[in-house]
Amino acid sequence: MKSSYLNTLDHQRDIMIRDHLLGRGIRDQAVLKAMREVPREDFVGERILERAYGDHPLPIAEGQTISQPYIVAYMTEALELDAADRVLEIGTGSGYAAAVLSRIVTTVYSVERLSGLAQAARQRLELLGYTNIVVHEGDGTLGWPEHAPYDAIVVTAGAPKVPQPLLEQLAIGGRLVIPVGRSYDVQDLVRVRRVSEHDYRSEQLCGVRFVPLIGAAGW
Ligand code: SAM
Questions:
Q1: Do 188 and 208 touch, CB atoms closer than 8 A?
Q2: Would you list the DSSP string of 139-157?
Q3: Mean pLDDT in residue range 31-44
Q4: What is the best residue among 100, 103, 112, 134 to mutate for testing ligand 1's pocket, by most ligand atoms within 8 Å of CB?
Q5: Which ranges constitute the DSSP H helices of 46-149?
Q6: Which ligand 1 atom sits nearest the alpha carbon of residue 216?
Q7: What are the residue ranges spanned by the domains of the chain?
Q8: Are 86 and 147 in contact (CB under 8 A)?
Q9: CA 116, CA 129: separation in Å to the nearest integer?
Q10: Distance CA 112, CA 206 (A)
Q11: For the domain bounded by 2-208, which CATH number is listed?
Q12: Is 7 helix (H, G, I), strand (E, B) or coil?
């Protein structure tokens, strides 16, 4: 029989779906299903387990964060994913967003610059049975050229501008969702579509706050 503690987390997950996602306009059924399936509590530290489904980001190791559930869902929806897509995520962090993406698409490639986080996320994802996510330690501002082109790229840290290597690694027809801002911690969420070899269309989606994207084509 389930413990009352697990029942509480299930209840909090239901509230997240109903109030924070559906209530704010997330409509993509594949995204809602993935957010329902992935146990967010397995991606946050034990000391803050009870806050796993709160409507806010949470601290993870090395001064980084796991994003607010609504933002994870919003960015995932903005990628306009198809089940056959291959996705590149920059900023593995806890591995949570990669896990959500992996429930929707064929393969997720995820790059994290901090070795401790990359290793921990790789182990966690393996333990939890996510077999279609590959985590790489490195500077994600340079993308991951070996597996390009990608149908979708999502950057989960704030960049000063859209990194050129990511534009180059986007498939024609592909979507890139990235926080871009002149300051270190406040950004506009931007979606870039590659419409042809040399033609990209960009649109601003909303204001966001992310930790900085640090690297050769970042801060
Ligand atoms: N997607 C993560 C999750 O679900 O837990 C949250 C990511 S956290 C908001 C941003 C992450 O981007 C941090 O783990 C940070 O170390 C990473 N990061 C910053 N600059 C990077 C870079 N150039 N390449 C790869 N990762 C980077």
A1: yes
A2: -GGG--GGG--EEEEEE-S
A3: 97
A4: 112
A5: 69-78, 96-102, 115-127
A6: 23
A7: 2-208
A8: yes
A9: 20
A10: 24
A11: 3.40.50.150
A12: helix
